[in-house]
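Dear colleague,

Thank you for sharing your sequence with our group. We've completed the structure prediction you requested, and as agreed, I am returning the results in plain text so they can be pasted directly into your records. Please verify that the sequence below matches your submission; if there's any discrepancy, let me know and we will rerun it promptly.
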Amino acid sequence: MTPNQKGEIAELRVQLRAVEKGYIASRPAVASRYDLIIDTGTELLRTQVKYADTASSHATGSVLVGLRPGRERGQRRNKHVYCVGQIDLILVYIAKVDKIACLKPEVFSGRSSLTIRFEQAKNVQLKAIRRLEDILW
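Please find the predicted structure tokens below.
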């Protein structure tokens, strides 16, 4: 699959989950830093959607999530990262387990990537681990 196809799959999975949660997911009319607006009924959340299928190089049972913004028309790979105030959520579709993780600004702000663990570590480490079960959406 191409990166565009993966992105579309992730957005569709997030939209389906939003409907299951009783939310409304809307796409912006023009290109912006976010992919969807999630209307929870009490707030509007600017949401970036990511597709994660790259295994972490240092651990099995985990996935590496790239957090850099994608290309914008006519530009090379954008070197910037997402910061507080630009978007409200990053929702990550983890294809291997067919689940969606929710990352808040305090987790993603200023970072270019992070690892999400969907299986217990073989050494049973818990400290400094971002477990999927703790951030499911």
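Summary note from our side: Helices lie at 3-20, 105-108.

Kind regards,
the structure core
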